[in-house]
Amino acid sequence: MSSRPKVFFNSLCPVCGASVADQRRRMEAAGEPAEWCDINEHPEALTEIGADIELVRLRLHVREPDGQGAVGAAAFAALWRRTPGQRKLGRFLGLPGVGAAATLLYDAFARLPYAWNRLRHPWQSAPAARRIPPARPCIPLKTLAGQGAVAWPRA
User: Fold this and answer.
1) Given the DSSP bridges, would you call strands 6-9 and 61-63 parallel, antiparallel or unpaired?
2) In which domain, by residue range, is 66 found?
3) What is the dihedral of CA 61, 63, 67, 69, to 10 degrees?
4) Within a domain: residue 1?
5) Is 73 a member of any domain?
6) Among 6-10, 15-19, 85-89, 103-107, the least confident range
7) Is residue 147 part of a domain?
8) CB of 58 within 8 A of CB of 71?
9) Does a structural domain hold residue 82?
C-alpha cells in the first residue's frame, strides 16, 4: 500500500478544481506527496473507494495510506494536517464539535456549486474522453462518528 494519501476530486466543478489545485500546489511545494485522481478522467478509480460518481462530484474524498477514508470537510482536514502552514487548521477541525460544524458548513456550501454544475452539465459537454453519464447518488458504506470519515472496502 502507498505511503501517501489518494485524493478523489471533481475537476469539472470550477470551485472544486480551483480548491484542489491550490491544495495540490501547497502540498507539492512542501514536499508532501499525494496521489491526485480526477474522477472525470479516471471513473474506474471509484471502485477503490466504493463511491458513486455523484457522491465524489459533491464532496472531496481522501483515502489515507492506512485505508481509512475521509469525505468533505474531514477530507480537507486530513490534507491540511499533512501540509505545513495548514497543520494547525487541520488539527483544529479534529476538535470535538468543530469537525461537526465544519462538516455542516462544507455540506451546505458544497450543494451550491454541485447544483449549479448539475444544471449546466459540464460532464456532458466535456471532451468524449471525459464525458460521464450522470449516476444516481449513493451513501458511503459506513459513516464514522458523523465526522465525514468513512470505511471503504479494501481493494
Assistant:
1) antiparallel
2) 6-151
3) -30
4) no
5) yes
6) 15-19
7) yes
8) no
9) yes
Q: Number of folded domains in the chain?
A: 1
Give residue-wise pLDDT tens across range 74-128.
Answer: 999 999 999 999 999 999 999 989 999 999 999 888 888 777 777 776 555 444 4
Compute CA distances 73 → 30, 56, 69, 105, 146, whole Å. Answer: 21, 13, 12, 8, 11
CB 72 within 8 A of CB 153: no
* Cα–Cα distance, 123 to 120 (Å, whole number): 9
Provide the 3-class DSSP secondary structure of residue 39.
coil
pTM for the complete prediction? Answer: 0.75
CA-CA distances (angstroms) from residue 75 to 126, 129, 141? 26, 27, 16
Instruction: Report the alpha-carbon distance of residue 57 to residue 80 in Å, rounded.
Output: 20
Let me know: does 8 contact 45? Beta carbons within 8 Å.
Answer: yes
C-alpha cell at 67: 485505508
In the block, cell 472544486 appears at 16
Grid coordinates of 12: 469539472
